[in-house]
Recover the amino acids of this structure.
C-alpha cells in the first residue's frame, strides 16, 4: 500500500491517508445482490430501493435460515436518542434468540456521545462493539479507531463474506467507506449518496393558493415575497442555506474530504469557489428582505423543531433531512388529513439543471474490539447478518418492528407500533449494520414513492467529486482549520457579518494551513487516483 507506507501507515506511526484503487480491491468484500425480496422501485441513479405494495406479513421471506450465533455474550456501546429501554425486554430477548447471541447494550446519550466515545477509546476498557457515527469522527477518534479496532478482512474480504449473505448484499461503496488505516474495520449503515436535504413545502396550501413551485433562484425569491405577510404571521421559509448550496452547485459539506475537487487540473476547496459566496449572498438576501420566519434569525439552520409552526402554516417551505417527509406526514395523518408535505425538486439557480454533489455512501459504523476472540467476532457478524436483512424478511421485521402483538399490531394490514413498541424498539440493533438504503412506509406508501422518485430525479444531476467514497483521515494539525466557517456563514446570512468577512476568512485559512492541506490532498490523488465518476 504505497500511500500508507509513505505515511508510515499500517498500524503504527502516522495514521493519515486513505486506501483506494487496487489496494482497496484486495480488501473489499465480494458483492452478491440479495434476491430474497424484489423491491417495487429498484435503485436508480444512486437512489434507495423502494417498497410501495402492501406488506404481506404472512408471506415474509427468511434471509437467515440457520442461527449463526454460538450463544456467546457481546457488549455493544451505541448512541441512543431518547430513553433507553430496560435490558432483558421482550424485543432484546426475541432478537437475541433469533441471532443466537446475547447482546448486552451499553446505550449512551446520542447528544453527548462524542465525549463518552473519547473517554472510552482513551481507556483500556473498550466494549466488544462500539458504534461511531461519521459526525463524531473528529479530533483523535479516527486514530483511535485504527489502534483499538479489529481488522475484519480475514472474515469478510473477497468471497469470505458469502458466509454472511446479508452482509454480501451491502453495496461496495459502503464497504469502501469502512476501510480505516488500510484495513476493513467498520460494519456500515449504507445510505444513498444523493443529497438528503430536501426543500419541503406545504403542497396542500400551494394547491389552495395557486402557488407555483419555483424553478430558479429568482422565482423562489418572487414566491417568497408573495407568500410573506408578517401581519398575518406568515413567512415564506426558514433558513434555506443548505438548499442554496445545492442550487448553486457548491461542493458537498457532508465531510471535509468531499469539499475538495479537481477543477481544471487544480484542487479547489468549496469555500474558495464563487458558488459558495453566491449561495451565502442569496440566502442573506432572503433574511434581509424579511421573508424568513423570525425563529430562524435567532439560531442556526437546524436550531428548532420545524414541525409545529410548519403545521400551523407560519411558514410554508423549509429544508431538512429526507426522513422528515415521512415523519411529518405520519404525525398529521389522522388528526389533520388535509395536511400535505412534499419535496421540491432542486433547481439550478439560473433555472437550468442543478449540479449536485454526492454525499458519503455510509455514515455510521460499528467496530469490533481488536482484543476480541474469533468467537466474539463471529458472534458480532452473526448479529450484523440479521440486522442487515432486507425489507420484506422476517429478520427485517423483527429488527425494525419487534414482536407482533407486543410491539406492533396490524391495522388494515399495516404494522403499527404499540406503546411498548415505541419504548423497546428504538435505535439499537439497526446500528450494528443495515441493508442497502431502503425506503418503505407501509402506512404511507405514497410518501415512500415520492421519496424514491425524488432521489432518482436528483440522482440524474449528481456528480462524484475527486474523493468520493474514500475514507480519509486528515493529519491532526489540519483538523480544526474549517471549524469557524459554519458560524461565519450563519452570521453573514443573518446580517451580523459581511461577505468580505468570509473572503478574509478564506484568505486566513489558506495561510494557516489550507494551501499545505491542498498539497497533502494532491499527493493522495497522485498516489491513489481519483474517485470521480
Amino acid at each position: 500500500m504505497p500511500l500508507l507506507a509513505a505515511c508510515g501507515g499500517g498500524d503504527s506511526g502516522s495514521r493519515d491517508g486513505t486506501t483506494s484503487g487496487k489496494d482497496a480491491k484486495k480488501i473489499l468484500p465480494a458483492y452478491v445482490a440479495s434476491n430474497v425480496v424484489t423491491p417495487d422501485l429498484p435503485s436508480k441513479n444512486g437512489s434507495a430501493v423502494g417498497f410501495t405494495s402492501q406488506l404481506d406479513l404472512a408471506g415474509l421471506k427468511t434471509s437467515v435460515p440457520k442461527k449463526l450465533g454460538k450463544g456467546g455474550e457481546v457488549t455493544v456501546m451505541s448512541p441512543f436518542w431518547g430513553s433507553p429501554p430496560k435490558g432483558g425486554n421482550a424485543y432484546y430477548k426475541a432478537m437475541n434468540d433469533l441471532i443466537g447471541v446475547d447482546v448486552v447494550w451499553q446505550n449512551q446519550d446520542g447528544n453527548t456521545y462524542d465525549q463518552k466515545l473519547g473517554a472510552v477509546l482513551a481507556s483500556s476498557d473498550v466494549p466488544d462493539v462500539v458504534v461511531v457515527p461519521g459526525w463524531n469522527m473528529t479530533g483523535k477518534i479516527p486514530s483511535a479507531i485504527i489502534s483499538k479496532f479489529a481488522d475484519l478482512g480475514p472474515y469478510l474480504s473477497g468471497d469470505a463474506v458469502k458466509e454472511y449473505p446479508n452482509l454480501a448484499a451491502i453495496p461496495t461503496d459502503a464497504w469502501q467507506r469502512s476501510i480505516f488505516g488500510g484495513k476493513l474495520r467498520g460494519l456500515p449503515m449504507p445510505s444513498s449518496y444523493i443529497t438528503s436535504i430536501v426543500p419541503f413545502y406545504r403542497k396542500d396550501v400551494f394547491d389552495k393558493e395557486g402557488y407555483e413551485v419555483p424553478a430558479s433562484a429568482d422565482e423562489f425569491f418572487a414566491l417568497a415575497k408573495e407568500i410573506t405577510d408578517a401581519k398575518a404571521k406568515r413567512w415564506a421559509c426558514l433558513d434555506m442555506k443548505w438548499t442554496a448550496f445545492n442550487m448553486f452547485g457548491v461542493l458537498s459539506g457532508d465531510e471535509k474530504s468531499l469539499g475538495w475537487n479537481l477543477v481544471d487540473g487544480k484542487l479547489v476547496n468549496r469555500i474558495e469557489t464563487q458558488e459558495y459566496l453566491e449561495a451565502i449572498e442569496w440566502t442573506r438576501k432572503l433574511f434581509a428582505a424579511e421573508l424568513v420566519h423570525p425563529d430562524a434569525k435567532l439560531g442556526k439552520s437546524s436550531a428548532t423543531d420545524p414541525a409545529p409552526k410548519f403545521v400551523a402554516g407560519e411558514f410554508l417551505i423549509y429544508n431538512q433531512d429526507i426522513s422528515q417527509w415521512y415523519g411529518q406526514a405520519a404525525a398529521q395523518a389522522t388528526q389533520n388529513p388535509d395536511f400535505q408535505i412534499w419535496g421540491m425538486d432542486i433547481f439550478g439557480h439560473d433555472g437550468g439543471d442543478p449540479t449536485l454533489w454526492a454525499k458519503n455512501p455510509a455514515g455510521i459504523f460499528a467496530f469490533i474490539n481488536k482484543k476480541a476472540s474469533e468467537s466474539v467476532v463471529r458472534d458480532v457478524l452473526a448479529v450484523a447478518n440479521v440486522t442487515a436483512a432486507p425489507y420484506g424478511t422476517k429478520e427485517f421485521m423483527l429488527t425494525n418492528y419487534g414482536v407482533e402483538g407486543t410491539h406492533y399490531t396490524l391495522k388494515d394490514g399495516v404494522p403499527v407500533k404499540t406503546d411498548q413498541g415505541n419504548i423497546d424498539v428504538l435505535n439499537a440493533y439497526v446500528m450494528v449494520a443495515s441493508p442497502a438504503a431502503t425506503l418503505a412506509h407501509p402506512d404511507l406508501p405514497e410518501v415512500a414513492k415520492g421519496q424514491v422518485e425524488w432521489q432518482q430525479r436528483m440522482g440524474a444531476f449528481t456528480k462524484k467529486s475527486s474523493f468520493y467514497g474514500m475514507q480519509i483521515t486528515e493529519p491532526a494539525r489540519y483538523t480544526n482549520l474549517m471549524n469557524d466557517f459554519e458560524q461565519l456563514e450563519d452570521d453573514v446570512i443573518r446580517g451580523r457579518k459581511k461577505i468580505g468577512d468570509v473572503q478574509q476568512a478564506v484568505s486566513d485559512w489558506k495561510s494557516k494551513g489550507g494551501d499545505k492541506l491542498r498539497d497533502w490532498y494532491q499527493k493522495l490523488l497522485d498516489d491513489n487516483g481519483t474517485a470521480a465518476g
Residues 1-14 have pLDDT under 50 and may be disordered. The radius of gyration is 23 Å. The longest helix spans residues 499-528.
